[in-house]
Amino acid sequence: MTNLGSIKENLSVIRTKIDCEAKKSNRSKDDITLLAVTKTVDVDAIYEAIEEGITDVGENKPQELSRKYQVIGDAVRWHQIGSLQTNKVKYIIDKVHMIHSLDRIALCEEIQNRAEKIGRSINCLVQVNISKEESKHGLDEEDVVEFINDVSNNYKNIKIKGLMTMAPFIDDKDEIRSVFKRLKDLSIKIDSLNIPDIDMRTLSMGMSGDYDIAIEEGSTIVRVGTSIFGERNYNKN
Ligand SMILES: *Cc1c(COP(=O)(O)O)cnc(C)c1O
Fold first, then answer.
1. Domain count of the chain?
2. Which atom of ligand 1 is nearest to the CA of 223?
3. Is residue 2 in some structural domain?
4. pLDDT per residue over 92-150, tens digit each?
5. Angle ∠(228,225,23) on CA atoms, nearest 5
6. Ligand 1 binding pocket includes 218 (Cβ within 6 Å)
C-alpha cells in the first residue's frame, strides 16, 4: 500500500487485480463492485474517482455522507458502511443505496419507521462479527438466522440483500481467508432456508489490505479506501 500514484493510476492497478482474482475464481469482473471508501476524502477527489468510472462510494459518518451528497447527489450510489447510530439514520435515509451495517433490532425499527414515512425500501446487508474481535460491530454468527427471520416478518421496508463482515486487523492471511469463507458459508446456509423476501447474493467483504483474498472467497463488493485515495488524514475535515 506504499507505492501509490494518482487516483487514476491507483484505480487501474486495483481493477487489474480485481479482474485477475475474478478470473482465478471463475467469475466475471462485472460480478464485483469496487466501492470507493471516501471517508475524509474531499469532494474534488471523489469527482476525480467518478470521472474514472467509480459508481459507488461508501462513507461511515452519516453527516459526512449527507454533506457530500448535497454537492454530488445521485452521480454515484451512496453506501453507509460504518456502524450506524439510530439517531443518525435520519441523515441518510433518503440518500443511501445500501446500508452495510444492519446489526440490531433497534436499528431496524428506526430504519423501518423512517423508510415507511418517505415511501422507500432500503437495501441492507447484515453485518456479522465473524472474527469476534471486541472492537468489531455486528451480530454473532449464531444469531444471524433468527435476526433475518425477524426482519423478514416484521420490517417490510428493509430489503436484506446479503451479508457484510470486516476481517480482523492481523497479518495471518489464512486466518483472514477463513473469516471470509465463513461469511460465504453462512450466506449459502441462509439462502437455502428460502426466507421470504431475503436475498443473499451480495457479500460485502475485503478492504485495501485483503480484497484479493475476499474476491477469491466470493466477495461481490470490495470496500477500498486507502489504496485509491492514499492514507486518510482525519484532522483535515
Ligand atoms: C474505512 C473502511 C474501509 C476501507 O478501508 P481501507 O483499508 O482504507 O481500504 C472499508 N470498510 C469499512 C467498514 C471502513 O470503515
1. 1
2. 10
3. no
4. 999 999 999 999 999 999 999 999 999 999 999 999 999 887 767 899 999 999 999 99
5. 70
6. no
Closest CA to 116 of 85, 156, 88: 156
Of ligand 1's atoms, which has the minimum distance to the CA of residue 227?
A: 9
CB-CB contact of 126 with 103 (8 Å): yes
Distance 71 CA to ligand 1 centre (A): 22
**Domain-located, residue 59:** yes
Considering the domain boundaries, does residue 116 fall inside one? Answer: yes
| Domain coverage including residue 215 | 7-229
Q: What is the tens place of the pLDDT at every residue in 10-65?
A: 999 999 999 999 999 899 999 999 999 999 999 999 999 999 999 999 999 999 99
How does the average pLDDT of the chain come out, rounded? Answer: 95
C-alpha 147/C-alpha 208 separation (Å) is 29
Q: Do the domain assignments include residue 91?
A: yes
User: With a threshold of 0.70, does the pTM exceed it?
Assistant: yes
Which long-range CB contacts under 8 A does 15-22 form with residues at least 24 apart? 17/211, 17/212, 18/211, 18/215, 18/222, 21/211, 21/212, 21/215, 21/216, 22/215
Identify residue 33 by its one-letter amino acid code.
Answer: T
Q: Which of 5, 167, 104, 168 is nearest to 112 (CA)?
A: 104
For a mutational test of ligand 1's pocket, the pick from 13, 37, 213, 224, i.e. the residue with the most ligand atoms closer than 8 A to its C-beta, is 37
Residue position matching grid coordinates 416484521: 154
Q: By three-state DSSP, how is residue 120 classified? A: coil
